[in-house]
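Loading example: each entry is read as two labelled lines plus one structure line.
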Amino acid sequence: MPTPYSVKPDRDFLRHLLDDGGEDLKKCFQCATCSVVCELSGKRQLFPRKEMISAQWGLKDRLVADPDVWLCYQCNDCSTHCPRGARPGDVMAAIRRETVIEHSVPSFLARWMSRPRYLPLLLLIPVVILGLAAMVEKAPAAGQKILYPYWWRLPHAVLIGLFGVLSVLVFVAMTVGVMRFWRAMKAADGDAARPTKSLRSSIATVLKNVLMHDQFSLCKTEHSRLLSHMAVFYGFLALSAVAVWVLIVILTAGHNPLVPGELIYPFNFWNPWRMLANLGGVAVVAGCAWMIWERLRQDKKALNTYSDWAFMATFVLVVLSGFVCEALHYLRLEPHRFAAYFGHLVLVFMLLAYLPYSKFSHTVYRIAAMVYAEYSGRNDDVPIEDTDEPKESEKSIIDQTSEKETNE
Amino acid sequence: MEKKDTKLAVWICQGCDIGASLDVEAMEKVVGECGVSACQSHPFLCSDEGVELIKKEIAAGTNALVIAGCSPRFNTDTFTFDGCLTERVNLREMVVWSHAPNDEDTQMLAEDYLRMGIVRAKKAHLPEPFETEIDKTILVVGGGQSGMTAALETARAGYQVVLVEKEPELGGWLRNFARSFPKTPPYRDLETVDLASRVKELEEDDRIQIHCGAAIEKISGQPGQFDVSLKTNGSTTQFRVGAIIQATGWKPYDASRLGHLGYGSPNVITNVQMEELAASGKILRPSDGKPARRIAFVQCAGSRDEDHLPYCSAVCCRVTLKQALWIRELDDQTEAYVLYKDIRAPGQYEDFYRRAQEDSGIFFTKGDVVSVNETGDHNLVVDVENTLIGKQIQIEADLVVLATGMVPAAADGEAIRQFRDAKAVVDKGEAGAQLEGAKQTVERLAAHEGTDVLHLDYRQGPDLPALKYSFPDSHFICFPYETRRTGIYSAGCVRAPNDFEACAEDALGAALKAIQSVELGSRGATVHPRWEDRSYPEFAMQRCTQCKRCTEECPFGTLDEDEKGTPLPNITRCRRCGICLGACPERIISFADYSVDIVSSMIKSIEVPDEDEEKPRLLGLLCENDAYPALDLAGLDRIQHSPFIRFIPVRCLGSVNVVWIADALSRGYDGILLVGCKSGDDYQCHFIRGSELMDTRGENIREKLLQLALEEERVRVEQLSISEYHKLPRIINEFAKQIEEIGMNPFKGF
């Protein structure tokens, strides 16, 4: 006989879920309408109902190790059809939020990311750090042409040094968080996991899925999300590619690393890399604008949590401030140009430094969960456990009902 | 025997397809052959003009009418005339609407029905009401929610009330419950129980006489004449009442039988005990007095369970929701785990359920609680299976509350009587084989000793007979508050598990029933379901053989008996079902318009074609309550049935006397179909035991048939509810076909 699962409600966890946008979760009475309409539930045995009841009981141990929650793209079919207004879609989002908070290191940063009262503090950190960095003055070398004032403030070397250290920290934090998540998923599955694929092929499948946005096209109710997310996703990839290229070019002191001796930096407007950056920026802004519009319009359909808004705002402001810098640069407006640049750097700092703790971390956690699901055989068709079969007593009720119908 | 002074007239209505489908002239000839000279037809008899014509005829001295037209269930008021016996022949639903028009067989059918109607009109008497003195005071037994409401409502309707309560104060369970679940919108917040103002209202009403700390010693007599002796503080008072409302309430289910749910451990309590704990303001564990922080509520503890109470007590879910909210209100640290089979929060109480769900300290899961065990220091662990959290889960708790159900605070009158009879046999110590049986009965029914509540002086037992799940109520939608004792109505939790509101509603219903009972009794009429019937059973006692069948079989305990066993009828207890008439082997019981002779004569009045004509004749005895209206409905739907069957309505299948079967077979009928209401625990039989009795009598009939060397299939008993009306023609046709296959009755023509 298997050992019975010992149920120990974690009321703090439950309270956090309620605060994170799952405020209606207690309304659920387990009718399973959500599971009937959900695209994922077939293979995942009554997803999201099982998550709903676990959430109601505050069963943190189960939920923070549940990959299924991350396979949900919050199409909100469940919330739309829920007869009791329990909004399972929002509850799944809240669980994802708590999962990040649970696994990230240090986790208080993640908690800060989901509470607006910490915003000033979170803003102050990059302002102070970058402000201190800006104090460092570097006198122009003899004979060096001064392109524009302030250029010796926040020189590339300082920025590369600062963001380099930051990137390493972020990478470590992210890796630790995801590893903890992975181990939790594995521990929760225990013997039930039956890997059928190699890790490498699982990752390949998932990456293809992510690039193609396959999961989004399953949504029956919200097709627009496929396009808006795609715009943001590819826009961001383009911007990242340009950033990497710029880093390389700067390290080669403004020369094209492929064509020795060719000075290409700063890019002129028609440079393909700059054009790619501009296009990417436009895509991100357009995608975000669309998302914001949808969210405002469908206000009733899905709750918009603070952490979602904070992430989206940071993201769109990074790009917008980038455009402002670009414009002011061409207009040679001083000192506004430098102020905009400073602001842009602060925003970039926030986007990057808080990645493991903000909504941005979904990129990594979600991929980890998807890979785990693929790897552990969760995506294979599994026979439905007998618990889901109608019990004898229920069967007789069903029989009686059908009998009655035939009689009448 | 035909009446001497009958002046009979026959009217045939030609409306509603009758004139177009039948040869009315030929029918008029049949009337003449029956020795009735006054016969007229009319194209539209229920019109003002038609009715005027009939009235003129009555004014001219006609005192009996046969009206051949629509079913007696239609135009009943139109064709009821004071002082004139009216027999309705159903030519519309049972003949022209359910058979081929202008057909030889249809014509024969109509003519046979006419012959039967004329015979009945000649033999039946216009009932004279049974006049007796009726006291209109209403006795209410039990001073809880239902009893207090019943007393108040009855008094408000203008009747004198005697309210009897065994405890020293009024209130019943209301005294134990400080707070209740909401009774008014928005159905979210707990309410305080206000008992004092209600008691005051009762005390101030001078039509209500209250006896607290009282016990009923004896109730004898019959509706309208119940003589009650009441013992209060050692002294006995006697008074007379007309009807009784039993509102004795409920007892909690005996939790000591729930050992598997941990009862016996100090920290496992019932919901009733929880009520006291919550009222104290602090939820402290009985074992060590420490605050209980984790409280598990086990729903359906001993309910919906074949080994305990098979039924749902309707309120436990809401009581638990209330208690969970209450303990959360007392201490936010407390957690409540509700383990349920189904949450039953009917109607607006869904909102109350939502309210409890919203609370972040109340947790719900469906599942089967299999055990509750101690883990040391009297801490508890609850094992639950088949939950949605997991197939097997465990929950630790400081305190477990068992939501036990309600058991009616009623006694099973029939069981008490059996016990007493058996005990008398044992005490006498005679008769070898009987003694053994009696001893077993005494042992089996020992628990019923001394459980009497009403102390009725009835031969069939001192209390109401228990029906389904020991509740003394019919449990069928058509007869709420009806018990098997006329003039005694049950209300509140003694009738069915109820909440406060439903109890109040019950009390109102039972009060109206009690008032109806005394009012109808004062007019010499009976109560539901033969409402307003003024006929009553008359006994030709000189021929009685003291076989006691009538006293035993009467579902309503109408008959007591003297030492010799001669029945002593109490007419106002009677509901006029005629079951005694069906039971009596000496055929000494008859009603003015319903007797063995009347029905026998109707059976014999038809023309039976010779064997070689290949026209079988079948007799159908249809219960008036469901089967007869069902056939009317089938006629309305124009569903056809065999033209070879002749139907006679009977008051109840239980009123069928076996001699009618014998008469029919010797007259040459080829088969007999009896259709009654559904019997069983969820019975729909309007007289409770009619169909069941027919089944036992059916055994005798079968033996008779075998003795006569006839096939037992020639007599068939069917049970039908009115909603199955469309099945009835099919049953008839199948039976007709079966009889055709068996062949003609060999006694035909003798």
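Residues 383-408 of chain A have pLDDT under 50 and may be disordered.
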